Amino acid sequence: MIANLEFENFAVFEHLDLSLSPRVNVVIGSNGTGKTLLLKAIYGLGLMADGQYPDRSDDGFVASASGKFLRIFSTEEDRVGTLSSKGIQSQTRLRLVSADGSATEVTFGARSQYMNFSADTVTPKSANTPVYIPTKEVLSLVRGIRHPKHDRATVEMIFDDGYLNLAELLVKPGFDEKTSDLLEDPRLSNVIRDLVALVGGRYRENNDGGFGFQPGQYEERAQATTDGGEAKSRAQIAKAYQDSTETRFVSTDVEGFPTGMTAEGYRKIGVLHRLLCNGSINPGNTGTLLWDEPESNLNPKLMKKLVQVLLELSRNGQQIILATHDYVLLKWLDLLMDEGKEDHIRFHAIYQDPDTQKMSVESADSYALISKTAISDTFAELFDEDMARALEVTNT
Question: Which Pfam family is an annotated match for this chain, by its short name (predicted)?
């Protein structure tokens, strides 16, 4: 879990000092303010903090770590100095402090090819791998990204490492096609069911390395034993009643179809479902979930349920950082937050300082306490225009 971030002279951020909520963080800003840059920087630092490069004494460590960090941003140059603020002579410094007190700090100059790691950079004792979900859905891209006949260098030129890493997580072993231990976990059982109910099915990996959509739903059924009798359910709630049912995914009579024939918004829900079912996201045990514009290509009707799912994950120990410029998503977060369930949402609004033209960040634990953003301004203008037209019609 990430507690604090400090950036100096990084891309559009001359200075940034961000204290993160252990629950839900929402980064707000117009296009071009650096929301995606911020999420990618957190992701890259989080991978290094997780010990993705454990042998730090190896001569190739700095070059390897620098190269992987660069590929997250898909820059056209092979030196980290390209990520420095333009026109600034001072060094770039990025520091991530985890909740356990460990810190990862890197520095580099505008002409640097590799990063320098601070002496107090500490690898935490336990794995805490972050998960990054980019704006564009990935399920339909997995086959192309991982195809053995595709040249890896070309693939890396097309897709940054955020996409490549997520593709690997989506095919990670451990997803049980018949039933899932998560369905017996009272923390996540409802979340898994809700995600499938939301889109009317689930996505399964095909033999060709791609994914297909299987219509269906989870149902409670009697759990048969080898002797023909009934077994006791593993579910904690069921055990209290000596229940003998199990939860299984039951497909409908409708034949499945390729992922590309389903709505992109559904595929984004499918990504979250698979990551939960294969353990890539396991609240309280895995790292921060970073999601760039979850509302992109998502039907507004689905947004309320998605927010409910995200809040439920955070209640079970999952730290979440979202980047958005969608008013509907923001309002659902604001309306569905329940302090009685210890919900906590910290909003971080990125804006351009009119005097210095530099990006600044304003944080608050209530959306109402954040100064007007371009998002709220735009919707206020839309409301005013709508009211003006309504009044005009009424007066004629």
Answer: AAA_23
Report the alpha-carbon distance of residue 248 to residue 253 in Å, rounded.
16
Closest CA to 215 of 231, 199, 226, 234: 199
Q: What's the rounded Cα separation, in Å, for the pair 52 and 126? A: 12
Structure tokens at 268: 């984004």
124: Cβ contacts below 8 Å, ≥ 6 apart? 49, 50, 51, 98, 100, 102
Specify the residue for token string 């920087």: 41
- Of 190, 172, 158, whose CA–CA distance to 129 is shortest? 172
* Unique residue bearing structure tokens 């604090």: 4
At position 373, the amino acid (one-letter code) is T
pLDDT of residue 241: 43
CB 298 within 8 A of CB 3: no
DSSP state of 253: S
If you search the block for the tokens 């302090």, which residue do you land on? 339
The model's pTM: 0.87
Q: Which pair of structure tokens corresponds to residue 145?
A: 């990204």
User: What are the Cα distances from residue 103, in Å, to 36, 63, 245, 287, 323?
Assistant: 22, 20, 47, 15, 23
Give yes or no for a contact between 135 and 292, defined as CB atoms under 8 angstroms apart: yes
Containing 250, the helix (H) or strand (E) segment is strand 245-251
Helix (H) / strand (E) element for 131: namely strand 131-133
Query: What pLDDT score does 130 carry?
Result: 95
| 333-358 tens-digit pLDDT | 999 999 999 999 999 999 887 777 78
Q: What is the DSSP letter of 85?
A: P
The segments of the chain whose pLDDT lies below 50 read 125, 179, 239-242
Task: Write the CB contacts of 129 (distance below 8 Å, at least 6 apart in sequence).
Answer: 46, 47, 50, 52, 286, 287
